[in-house]
C-alpha cells in the first residue's frame, strides 16, 4: 500500500512536475507557496494564481514568481496547464470552488475543514467520483514526519493497547472575524477543533465512535467559543477533544496505552517534538526562503508531496487522509454542533 512516509523514488518516465494552481491569494496560500519552494522544482511548479481581485493575484504572482495571475476563479479553472488546485479560501467557499475546479477536470487539495458540514463533504466527494478527479482535505498534520513515525509506533503497539487519547488546541482568536463570525464559518469546532478530531481519528484508524458528548459555550455571534468533546469507542476506549477560540490551551496531545504513553507536548497541529515513554525526539523542519504567516507552515510541503505521490500512482484519494475520515470528522462536528445549538446557513440547504 502506498504511504506518505515511504521514500518517493520516481522513475525516469515520471519526471514531469506536478503543475499547481493557487486559488485565493491570502495568508495560507502565501505559506503554501513558500512551502512548495522547499521541494524539488522538477517535481512541483506553481503555474497560476487566482483571486477575486486581479491586483491581489498579480501582487501574489510577482511575490512568488508565478507566471500567470487571474482575477477570477473561472479563469483558473479553464487553464489547461494545471493538474491540481490548492484551495485556500474560507471554508464557506470550499464547496463552490471545489466543484468548479473538479468539473473542469482539475484535482483539488482543499484547506481544512473540507466543507461546512457532512452534506457538503458528501457532495464534494460525489463530484470527485463523477469526474474521476483527485480530492483531498488538506489536513497537513497527518503528513508531518512526526505523524508518520507516530503511526508506525502505533502499528507496532509501542505503548500497548490504546486506552485514552486526549488532544486540545486553542488560543484567543475573537479578534479575527473568520474565526468567530457565523457568516464566515467561524467557531471553535470548525476553525481548530478539526485538528484535535483528526488526531483522534488518525490514532483510532478511522473508527466511528459509539457515542459523542459535547459541551461548552457559545459566543454572541452564535458560534461555539469553546467546546469539549468526549468520544467513546469500542472496548471502552475514550478520547477527549478540547477546542477554543477564546482561551489559550496547551495545544498538546497524549496517547495513553497499556504499556506507556506517547506525548506531543506542544503545537499538536504542526508537531516537531515527540515523547515516547519519556524519550524525546525532534523532527526539525526545513527553513523557508521568506517569512511565513503561521507557525511551522513550511510543513505544508509534506501534504504537497502526498498529492504528487497520489497523482503519480493514479489515486483519487489519499490513503493517509481518505474521504472516509473527512466524512467522519464532518459527521462528528455536525453532531457536536447539534448538541451545542450551533447552526450555519449551509445546514438549511435542501
Molecular structure report:
This protein is α/β, with parallel strands linked by helices. Helix content is 32%, strand content 23%. The protein is built from 10 helices and 14 strands. It has helices at 27-36, 54-64, 73-78, 94-103, 118-131, 145-155, 177-180, 188-203, 301-312, 323-340, and strands at residues 18-23, 44-50, 68-70, 84-87, 107-111, 135-138, 162-170, 211-218, 224-232, 238-244, 253-257, 260-264, 273-276, 279-282. The strands form 2 sheets. It has an 8-stranded mixed β-sheet with strand order 8-9-10-7-11-12-13-14, with helices on one face. Helix 2 (54-64) links the parallel strand 2 (44-50) and strand 3 (68-70). It is globular and about 55 Å long. The two termini are 38 Å apart. Mean pLDDT is 95; it is low at 7-14.
Amino acid at each position: 500500500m502506498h504511504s506518505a512516509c515511504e521514500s518517493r523514488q520516481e522513475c525516469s518516465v515520471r519526471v514531469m512536475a506536478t503543475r499547481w494552481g493557487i486559488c485565493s491569494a491570502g495568508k495560507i496560500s502565501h505559506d503554501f507557496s513558500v512551502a512548495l519552494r522547499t521541494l524539488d522544482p522538477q517535481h512541483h511548479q506553481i503555474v497560476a494564481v487566482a483571486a477575486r481581485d486581479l491586483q491581489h493575484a498579480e501582487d501574489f504572482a510577482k511575490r512568488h514568481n508565478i507566471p500567470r495571475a487571474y482575477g477570477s476563479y473561472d479563469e483558473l479553472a479553464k487553464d489547461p496547464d494545471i493538474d491540481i488546485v490548492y484551495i485556500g479560501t474560507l471554508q464557506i467557499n470550499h464547496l463552490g470552488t471545489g466543484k468548479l475546479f473538479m468539473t473542469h477536470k482539475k484535482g483539488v487539495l482543499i484547506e481544512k475543514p473540507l466543507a461546512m458540514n457532512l452534506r457538503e463533504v458528501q457532495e464534494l466527494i460525489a463530484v470527485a467520483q463523477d469526474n474521476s478527479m483527485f480530492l483531498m482535505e488538506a489536513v497537513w498534520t497527518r503528513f508531518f514526519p512526526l505523524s508518520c513515525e507516530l503511526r508506525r509506533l502505533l502499528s507496532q503497539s509501542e505503548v500497548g493497547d490504546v486506552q485514552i487519547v486526549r488532544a486540545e488546541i486553542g488560543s484567543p482568536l475573537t479578534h479575527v472575524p473568520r474565526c468567530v463570525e457565523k457568516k464566515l464559518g467561524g467557531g471553535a469546532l470548525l476553525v481548530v477543533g478539526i485538528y484535535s478530531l483528526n488526531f483522534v481519528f488518525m490514532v483510532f484508524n478511522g473508527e466511528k465512535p459509539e457515542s459523542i458528548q459535547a459541551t461548552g459555550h457559545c459566543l454572541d455571534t452564535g458560534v461555539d467559543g469553546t467546546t469539549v468533546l468526549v468520544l467513546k469507542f469500542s472496548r471502552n476506549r475514550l478520547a477527549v477533544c478540547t477546542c477554543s477560540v477564546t482561551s489559550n490551551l496547551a495545544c498538546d496531545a497524549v496517547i495513553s496505552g497499556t504499556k506507556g504513553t506517547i506525548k506531543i507536548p506542544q503545537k499538536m497541529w504542526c508537531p516537531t517534538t515527540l515523547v515516547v515513554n519519556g524519550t524525546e525526539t525532534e523532527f526539525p523542519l526545513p527553513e523557508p526562503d521568506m517569512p511565513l504567516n503561521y507557525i511551522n507552515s513550511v510543513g505544508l510541503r509534506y501534504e504537497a508531496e502526498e498529492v504528487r505521490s497520489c497523482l503519480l500512482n493514479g489515486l483519487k484519494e489519499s490513503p493517509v487522509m481518505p474521504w472516509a475520515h473527512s466524512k467522519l470528522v464532518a459527521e462528528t462536528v455536525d453532531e457536536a454542533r447539534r448538541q451545542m445549538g450551533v447552526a450555519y446557513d449551509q445546514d438549511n440547504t435542501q
